[in-house]
Amino acid sequence: MVLRKLAGRLRQLGPLTTGAVVATAVLVAGTVLAAALGSTRIAVCLLALLLALAVAGVLRVNLRLLGLRADRREIRDLRVVLDQTQRRVVAAVERQRLDTEDRHRELTDAVARVQRIADRGLRDLRFTVPREVEATVQLFQGLTPRAPMPSSGDYALNPTDLLELVFLVRTGKPRLVLELGSGTSTIWLAYVLEQHGGRLISLDHDPDYANRTRAALHAHGLTGVAEVRDAPLAPVDLDGRTYSWYDPAVLEDLDDIDFLLIDGPPAAVGPDSRYPALPVTGPRLADRATIVVDDAGRKDEQAALQRWLSDVDGLSRGDELLGRHAVLLLNRAAAGELASLSGETRG
Ligand SMILES: C[S@@+](CC[C@H](N)C(=O)[O-])C[C@H]1O[C@@H](n2cnc3c(N)ncnc32)[C@H](O)[C@@H]1O
């Protein structure tokens, strides 16, 4: 039974180990037999062979262990490489995810921008264009120009604003109108003033635009009614701040201005470019005057309106029917003298 178990175990071993076991058994048996028979030499020889077999066995086991250690090191190195590769793959996937998120955000923003533009375009088509067309029709119904009217481009007053401007001048019949910023509005104003005998002085800081407006006045036969003055921008000091505004020297011969249109200088010349209009022209305004401020919804113009309304006695807001301008009414008789906003610019 024991022998069968042993044989079964031996069968599980490899052929080399089985050979070694068998050789060991033979050598041990041989050694015992030789010793028993008194053959010492043979016994010693067999013992030496047994020893050699044992040393070979130990060597083999050592070699196996060395191989195992090398395998373990290799496995450890492989695991490090695997970890690094895994980390690199995760980082690449994360980068890709963030990139995709960025692209998605950019795309969503672009779509929203296009949507806003399309909405504005649609709104313009549905409301602004018909409104401006109606205003243009009304303008030309009230007045027949003697020459082609210059187009109201980006910089000019909109037809709706022009329509109310023409209405205010036609009904108010001012004697002297001062316009800050010349253009198409100069021609329209001049036509209306011609009807009741008023006069228009228009300032322009840009000699090219001043010349264009002069040429248009000439073509329409309005040079007797309106004059365009070159007014280069100059530093204007007010309340400790310097503004870039029309050189006040060009206003020296003007008094009792009863209508002021503020449509220049353009915002591009500097911040709060239109604020000096009232402080500088204030002393030259008539006791009763109407002031129209274009682009009244813009931040700088809003701030200027607030300051004027709180600083200038007798100044109040008038009614606005159409457009994006503001109307101010000056009534000095009711409120006393206009505060001496810019004594230095006059004196
Ligand atoms: C708002 S614009 C004045 C427009 C004028 N009141 C009108 O309604 O026709 C103010 C100034 O901008 C300048 N300007 C006018 N048209 C321009 C244009 N198309 N490009 C650049 N500047 C312009 C002129 O110097 C003008 O005095």
From TrEMBL:
Could you tell me which InterPro entries the record lists for this protein? SAM-dependent_MTases_sf
Q: Which UniProt keywords apply?
A: Coiled coil, Membrane, Transmembrane, Transmembrane helix
The species this protein was found in: Actinoplanes cyaneus
- A Pfam family of the record is Methyltransf_24
Which portions of this protein are annotated as coiled-coil regions?
Answer: 68-110
Determine if Transmembrane is one of this entry's keywords.
Answer: yes
Which residue windows are transmembrane per the record? Answer: 12-35, 41-63
Q: What is this protein called?
A: Methyltransferase
